[in-house]
Amino acid sequence: MPTTLTILLAHKGLNLAEGLLPFDRSVMGTIIDCYNRRTGRCDPSISTIADLVGCDPRTVIRSTQRLGASGFLRKIKHGGNNHCNQYEPNWQKLLNCVAEWKSKKANRRKRSKLTPESVSQCIVSHIASDRTATQTFSTNQSKLTLPTEAKSQAQPLVASGAKSRSSITSVQSPSHFVPRLSFGISSKQVARDAAERRWNRDLQHQFGSDAKIYGDLIEGVTSEIMTMATDAELKERGAGIVWLIQEIFKRRTACSEGVGGGQISGGS
Q1: Residue 147: is its pLDDT beyond 60?
Q2: pLDDT tens track for 171-194
Q3: In whole angstroms, what is the distance from residue 191 CA to residue 255 CA?
Q4: What is 4-98's CATH number, 1.10.1200.10, 3.40.50.300, 2.60.40.10, 1.10.10.10?
Q5: Angle between the N-to-C axes of helices 4-16 and 22-33, in degrees from 0 to 180, rounded to the nearest 10
Q6: Do residues 217 and 245 make contact, with C-beta atoms less than 8 angstroms apart?
Q7: Whole-angstrom Cα distance, residue 113 to residue 101?
Q8: For the segment 52-68, what is each residue's pLDDT rounded down to a tens digit?
């Protein structure tokens, strides 16, 4: 009785087998899948195979005949089990397909190791006026490297002031000058800018079609509300627009009820 591994390898061998029609592979795979390891029976009806594969029963009959002729399947007719045929997959033939495939791969690896590498002819692509030069950094046009005494005088990286978040101190050497480079804004500021763009985009997407409502909302947005909405968006995507609308509504309700401290204006 075949083991679980044998059945899995049989499916692999079926895919690797040569000379089988694609439809015959489907029928054979269905028969293998219907094999009962506990009882050793494999007797799906023609109609069952046809329903699973999605074809006419007569097509299944012709396919099982071809599989039997190629030696992948043995069909036994019997009168029991609703006059269904009993099928015996040729496990050894299917395993042989896997073994032949492994042998082909091994032989190919051996041939690739024995085959000498092809030597391609060098094609000259330089123009006549080319001259030999030292490859260097774009800001260092000198052909000389940094002298030893200049290396000892080079200053380490230092923290910059409030205007510039990070930079590299310039190093003056006898042969060249490396300008100051800036790394740009911090990742925290990049995240805040992205969060602000998201709730702005959500606001325009939800209310941009109505000019009056969109204008009223924009008029009620203050710098404080913008900051708080960005903070909410940073904590959770989509929370910025929700917090902004709720805050504008709360402040306008407070203004209409005569509560101080909730005045909304577009400039502050």
Answers
A1: no
A2: 444 444 444 444 567 888 888 899
A3: 34
A4: 1.10.10.10
A5: 170
A6: yes
A7: 19
A8: 999 999 999 999 999 99
